[in-house]
C-alpha cells in the first residue's frame, strides 16, 4: 500500500484544484498524439489526426481528453486505494482496448508538461516530486491487471 | 525518428529564445531531476549538496546546457559532436542511458514552465525528438 504524508495529500489536492479538467485533458491528450504519434493506433475512429493542427482541432480528441482527466479525479479522491479504484479500468485497457501499458507513462509525462505550462513556477520542484509520485502510482495501477 | 528540417529550425529558434536563461534552465532541470527522480542521486554521491540551490548543481546544470547548445550548433552531426562526451559517460561515468530520458523530461518541464505560450505541441515534439537524438548520440560509445 502506498504511504502518503499529509503534505503530499494536500499538495496533490492543491495542484488538482488549480486545473481546469476541460482545458488540461484535451491539451494533454493532444500532446500525447502529436509527440508520440504511434499512440494514434488506439484512436482509430477519431478521424483526421495527420497534423498537429488537425489533432488540436479534433473534437473527439478533446472529448476523450476530458474523459481521461475526469478518471484521474477518482485517483485524487481515493489516494489510499488507487490500485483498487483503477482495477476495472486497467483490465479494460488490457483485455478490450489492448493498450501497451508503456503508454500510460507517456500520458502521465504529457499531463505533467501540460500542468507545467499552466502552473509555471507554482509547480515547484517539491510539488513536481509529489505530483510525479502520484502519477507513478496511477500508471502502475493502470498496468496492474495486465497478466 | 530522424530530425526533419522543420525540427531543426524549431529547435534552433527555441534555443535562441532561451538565450541567456539556458544556465538557469539547466540548473533547475538538474535540481528537479535529483529531487523528483531520487534514483538519479546515485550518480552524484560525491557532491556535498544536492539541493536546488547547491552551487554544484547550478554549475553542472550550466555545463550540461552549454553542451546542449554546442550540440544544437552541430545538429547535423550529433554523433560526431558528442563523441568524446559519449566516451566519458560510457567508460568513466558509466551512467545508465535510461537516465538521459529522465533528464530530458525535466528539461522539457522547465522549458514549458518558462515559456508556456511558446512551448506548443509542435515545439514539444521537435524538442522531444531532438533530446532523444541527443541521448542516442550520448549513448553511442557504450557498447
From TrEMBL, chain A:
GO cellular component, one term: haptoglobin-hemoglobin complex
Protein name: Hemoglobin, beta adult 2
Entries under InterPro entries matching the protein: Globin, Globin-like_sf, Globin/Proto, Hemoglobin_b, Hemoglobin_oxygen_transport
Keywords: Heme, Iron, Metal-binding, Oxygen transport, Transport
Domain Globin, first and last residues per copy: 3-147
Family to which the UniProt record says this protein belongs: Belongs to the globin family.
Superkingdom of origin organism: Eukaryota
Record carries keyword Acetylation: no
Keyword Heme attached: yes
Annotated source species: Sparus aurata
Lineage: Eukaryota, Metazoa, Chordata, Craniata, Vertebrata
Gene Ontology molecular function terms on file: haptoglobin binding; heme binding; metal ion binding; organic acid binding; oxygen binding; oxygen carrier activity; peroxidase activity
Any single biological process term in GO: hydrogen peroxide catabolic process
UniProtKB/TrEMBL annotation, chain B:
GO-annotated cellular components: blood microparticle; haptoglobin-hemoglobin complex; hemoglobin complex
GO molecular function: haptoglobin binding; heme binding; metal ion binding; organic acid binding; oxygen binding; oxygen carrier activity; peroxidase activity
TM helices/strands, residue ranges: none
Keyword Metal-binding: yes
Origin superkingdom: Eukaryota
InterPro entries registered for this protein in UniProt: Globin (IPR000971), Globin-like_sf (IPR009050), Globin/Proto (IPR012292), Hemoglobin_a-typ (IPR002338), Hemoglobin_oxygen_transport (IPR050056)
Keyword Transmembrane helix (UniProt): no
Domain Globin as annotated: residue spans: 2-143
CDD domains, alphabetized: Hb-alpha-like (cd08927)
Keywords noted in UniProt: Heme, Iron, Metal-binding, Oxygen transport, Transport
GO BP annotation list: hydrogen peroxide catabolic process
Pfam name, any one: Globin
The family this protein is said to belong to: Belongs to the globin family.
PANTHER family, alphabetized: ALPHA GLOBIN-LIKE-RELATED, HEMOGLOBIN FAMILY MEMBER
Protein name: Hemoglobin subunit alpha-B-like
Naturally occurring in which organism (per UniProt): Sparus aurata
Amino acid at each position: 500500500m502506498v504511504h502518503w504524508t499529509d503534505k503530499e495529500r494536500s499538495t496533490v489536492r492543491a495542484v488538482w484544484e488549480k486545473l481546469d479538467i476541460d482545458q488540461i485533458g484535451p491539451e494533454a491528450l493532444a500532446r500525447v498524439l502529436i509527440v508520440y504519434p504511434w499512440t494514434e493506433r488506439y484512436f482509430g475512429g477519431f478521424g483526421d489526426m495527420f497534423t498537429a493542427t488537425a489533432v488540436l482541432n479534433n473534437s473527439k480528441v478533446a472529448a476523450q481528453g476530458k474523459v481521461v482527466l475526469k478518471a484521474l479525479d477518482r485517483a485524487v479522491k481515493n489516494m489510499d486505494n488507487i490500485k483498487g479504484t483503477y482495477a476495472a479500468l486497467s483490465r479494460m485497457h488490457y483485455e478490450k482496448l489492448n493498450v501497451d501499458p508503456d503508454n500510460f507513462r507517456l500520458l502521465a509525462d504529457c499531463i505533467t508538461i501540460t500542468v507545467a505550462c499552466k502552473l509555471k513556477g507554482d509547480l515547484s520542484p517539491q510539488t513536481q516530486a509529489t505530483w510525479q509520485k502520484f502519477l507513478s502510482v496511477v500508471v502502475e495501477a493502470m498496468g496492474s491487471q495486465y497478466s | 525518428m530522424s530530425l526533419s528540417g522543420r525540427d531543426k529550425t524549431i529547435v534552433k529558434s527555441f534555443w535562441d529564445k532561451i538565450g541567456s536563461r539556458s544556465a538557469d534552465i539547466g540548473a533547475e532541470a538538474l535540481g528537479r531531476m535529483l529531487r523528483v527522480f531520487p534514483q538519479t542521486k546515485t550518480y552524484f554521491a560525491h557532491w556535498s549538496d544536492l539541493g536546488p540551490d547547491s552551487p554544484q548543481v547550478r554549475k553542472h546544470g550550466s555545463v550540461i546546457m552549454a553542451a546542449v547548445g554546442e550540440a544544437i550548433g552541430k545538429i547535423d552531426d550529433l554523433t560526431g559532436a558528442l563523441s568524446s562526451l559519449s566516451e566519458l559517460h560510457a567508460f568513466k561515468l558509466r551512467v545508465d542511458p535510461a537516465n538521459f530520458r529522465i533528464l530530458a523530461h525535466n528539461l522539457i518541464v522547465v522549458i514549458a514552465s518558462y515559456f508556456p505560450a511558446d512551448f506548443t505541441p509542435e515545439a514539444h515534439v521537435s524538442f522531444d525528438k531532438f533530446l532523444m537524438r541527443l541521448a542516442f548520440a550520448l549513448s553511442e560509445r557504450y557498447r
